[in-house]
Amino acid sequence: MAKKYSIEIIDGIVEVRFTEDPEAQDICDSLDDAAQVNPNNLRLWDYTCGANLTGHDIEHVAEHARTIQIQSGRVAIVAPHDLTFGLFRMYEVHRKEERIQLSVFRSVKEAREWLKA
Asked: What is the CB neighbour count within 10 angstroms for residue 47?
């Protein structure tokens, strides 16, 4: 099965970009793959394509993310569509962790500026 995302390092930021609407397992897989990219403490997940997930899916992904041994840092999520933005604001609440600063943005530009601040 082909991955629905790509991972690359751009200007010191590990960027995970979804090419189609992901399911919860796709996001968990991307978290696992991104954790293997070392070393970096700036990460960006781009959901410009959208993400039609349930509240349960969001909780599942947040729980999975907490189990991954990844260095502390900043995580930016790009979600320009209202539904996707709201879902990832829920994720932000479920993902709360002292070692990770996470924020949700409407554009890649805003996300990159926050990561580099």
From this structure: 24
Cα–Cα distance for residue pair 116/112, rounded to 1 Å: 6
Q: Contact 5/26 with Cβ under 8 angstroms? A: yes
Give the end-to-end CA distance of the chain in Å, rounded to a whole number.
Answer: 37
Q: Which two tokens stand for residue 85?
A: 């933005």
DSSP for the chain, please give it: ---SEEEEEETTEEEEEESS---HHHHHHHHHHHHTS-S-SEEEEE-TT-----HHHHHHHHHHHHHS---SEEEEEE--SHHHHHHHHHHHHHT-BTTEEEEEESSHHHHHHHHH-
Q: pTM value? A: 0.93
Segment 21-43, tens digit of pLDDT: 999 999 999 999 999 886 678 99
Which phi-psi region, left, alpha or beta, contains residue 99 (left: φ > 0; alpha: ψ -120 to 50)?
alpha
